[in-house]
Design goal:
- The structure is a single chain.
- This protein has 333 residues and is an alpha+beta fold.
- The chain has 3 domains: 6-104 and 185-205, Alpha-Beta Plaits (2-Layer Sandwich); 119-178, Ribosomal protein L10, N-terminal fragment, domain II (Molybdopterin biosynthesis moea protein, domain 2); 212-299 and 317-332, no CATH class.
- The protein contains 12 helices and 12 strands.
- It has helices at 6-21, 35-45, 56-66, 93-101, 133-139, 168-173, 200-203, 209-227, 236-253, 262-279, 285-304, 321-332; strands at residues 24-29, 49-52, 84-89, 105-107, 119-121, 124-125, 144-147, 150-153, 157-160, 182-184, 187-193, 196-199.
- The strands form 4 sheets. A 5-stranded antiparallel beta sheet has the order 2-3-1-11-12, with helices on both faces. Strands 6-8-7 form a 3-stranded antiparallel beta sheet, covered by helices on one side. The protein has a two-stranded antiparallel ribbon with strand order 4-10.
- Helix 10 crosses helix 11 (285-304).
- The longest helix is centred in the C-terminal third of the chain and has 20 residues, at 285-304.
- The N and C termini lie far apart (121 Å).
């Protein structure tokens, strides 16, 4: 039987203990992260999480051992590949994803890395003054020229297409042009919680996404309940208010006086009497003054009133001469 180094056994034991104690276990990608940056990221997580990076074989052994206590966690083994690490934490998967996302930052490309998008050098001035670097720019395919004491790029120029390897000479020039195409950081591959493994395509949502979704659903449910007159604890007050408004509207339309409709009925009657007086040619300073005020106020009121789709009111009934006389009598005593 092959001898296993003590430090390897100890490290596997530590990983197993951390994964048993923590409710959430994640595998994160550590590819191309400088050592100094890793230490900074580890320090940022220390309050709520532990990050341990070791040989993939040891992480696989630890996952096998802890799977007896946490069924389903062995699915994380599919994500152990390349440079990766184990994170154990008490944060829920969504909070952990957002915390790790904050560690991502732009980085220069290394020769041979795959371009994550089309790398294009934009038209315009560069940071360089006239010098031999213009030849280096032209050598990688950039239309460089000297204008106003600066080296400028004459037009937007694509250098590498998405998915292609970045040549060494291009990788060396991009940082000088202040182009950092790569993104490095603790990139979450998968996370385990309570028997379920989540991948980042599920976790990559805004923090307020579900809160807003539930708020919208609650608002729409309330509106539907009021619309179909379905009484519940939440809809009863809006329903009563709606019923009251509709009752008042019916009272006004039917000219039924009550405490809620009397003021509106009086105002409506007053407006109708004024209209009759004006239409009949009745001459009075008070009538003329009031009619002028109403005419001046009408455009302002129409502009301020909201546009509503509603059932049109019935056309006003024709006023007989007897009704006109009675109205005038009531108006002017």
């Amino acid at each position: 039987m092959a001898h296993v180094a003590t430090w390897k056994k100890d490290l596997v034991s530590e990983l197993v203990q951390d994964m048993r104690e923590a409710p959430v276990v994640a595998v994160v990608d550590m590819e191309n992260i400088p050592g100094q940056q890793i230490q900074s990221m580890r320090a940022g997580l220390r309050a709520h999480a532990k990050l341990k990076m070791t040989k993939n074989k040891l992480m696989l052994l630890a996952l096998d051992e802890v799977s007896a206590d946490k069924p389903g966690i062995e699915a994380l083994k599919d994500n152990i590949d390349g440079q990766c690490a184990i994170v154990t934490t008490d944060m829920d998967p969504f909070k952990l994803f957002n915390q790790l996302k904050k560690t991502m930052s732009p980085a220069p490309a290394k020769p041979g890395q795959i371009a994550p998008f089309d790398i294009v050098v934009p038209k315009g001035p560069t940071p360089f003054g006239p010098g031999p670097i213009i030849g280096e720019l032209q050598k990688i395919g950039l239309p460089a020229a000297i204008e106003g004491g600066k080296i400028v790029i004459k037009k937007d120029t694509p250098l590498v297409k998405e998915g292609e390897a970045i040549p060494a000479n291009v990788a060396a020039m991009l940082p000088k042009l202040e182009i950092l195409p790569m993104v490095v950081g603790l990139d979450l591959r998968a996370v385990y919680e309570d028997g379920t493994v989540y991948h980042k395509d599920v976790l990559d949502i805004p923090e307020d996404y579900y809160a807003n979704m539930f708020a919208t659903a609650a608002h729409n449910a309330l509106a539907l309940g009021v619309e179909i007159a379905f009484p519940t604890k939440m809809t009863i007050q809006p329903l009563i208010a709606k019923a009251f408004r509709e009752t008042v509207a019916v009272s006004v339309a039917a000219a039924i006086p009550n405490e809620a409709s009397i003021k509106t009925l009086i105002a409506k009657a007053d407006a109708q009497m004024l209209s009759v007086a004006t239409a009949s040619g009745y001459q009075s300073d008070s009538v003329s003054a009031r009619a002028g005020a109403v005419a001046a106020a009408a455009p302002v009121a129409a502009a301020a009133a909201p546009v509503e789709e509603s059932v049109k009111e019935d056309e006003p009934e024709e006023v007989s001469e007897e009704d006109a006389a009675a109205g005038l009598s009531a108006l002017f005593g």
